[in-house]
Design a protein that fits this description.
191 residues, alpha/beta, Rossmann fold, 5-stranded parallel beta sheet, 9 helices, 5 strands, 62% helix, globular, binds adenosine monophosphate
């Protein structure tokens, strides 16, 4: 099974992806984590993307598509992928469909965590102090939210037209959101 966790920055995608990994035979594929690992390792790629992440802009489609492509065999061997923070553009979504199709697979469900803007700002404000992430600050968060609204949110109709989109209320506690995701998976995928 292949899932996409979809939603704005600070919606809880990473938290929920980690919980799904604990309970199901799946691998979390977070392009943000992969890019942060590249930066931490001091690699060529890390040097190229460091400033982009700190600003809150999106890195190029080619970079993240390649990162994901490299990890698909591992995810497939584990039983499926939870895509967290990918795709973020239509080009990425189309590339993902093609890569999966080439492996005889597909996206089974897109779970959209719905969190209103006021709650997001409140969450992220709490995180600024403790996260240590260079993009968790008011300026970068504004850019990240704008990138989501301008480039990522337009993907919703793409997945809706494919009949793969399900909305989950992301405003509750971690446990409440997890339970809502489990219900959606049972209803829509029978698992
Ligand atoms: P995240 O951890 O998902 O919030 O991602 C952190 C940052 O990594 C984003 O603000 C972007 O700069 C970059 N990034 C992560 N995933 C993508 C993606 N799919 N496309 C473009 N940039 C990405």
């Amino acid at each position: 099974m292949n899932l996409i966790l979809f939603g704005p920055p600070a919606a809880g995608k990473g938290t929920q992806a980690k919980r799904l990994v604990e309970h199901r035979q799946m691998v979390q594929l977070s392009t943000g984590d992969m890019l942060r690992a590249a930066i931490a390792s001091g690699s060529e790629l890390g040097k190229r993307v460091e400033g982009i992440l700190a600003r809150g802009d999106l890195v190029s489609d080619e970079i993240v598509i390649e990162l994901i492509e490299n990890r698909l065999p591992e995810a497939e061997a584990a039983g499926g992928a939870i895509f967290d923070g990918f795709p973020r553009t239509l080009a990425q979504a189309e590339a993902l469909d093609i890569m999966l199709k080439g492996r005889g697979k597909q996206i089974d469900l897109v779970i959209r965590l719905k969190v209103d803007d006021a709650a997001l700002i409140e969450r992220i404000a709490g995180r600024f102090a403790e996260s240590g992430r260079p993009d968790d600050n008011p300026e970068s968060f504004k850019v990240r939210l704008a990138a989501y609204n301008d480039q990522t949110k337009p993907l919703l109709p793409y997945y809706e037209n494919l009949g793969k989109l399900v909305d989950v209320d992301g405003m509750g506690s971690i446990e409440q959101v997890s339970a809502a995701i489990d219900r959606a998976l049972k209803e829509r995928c029978g698992v």
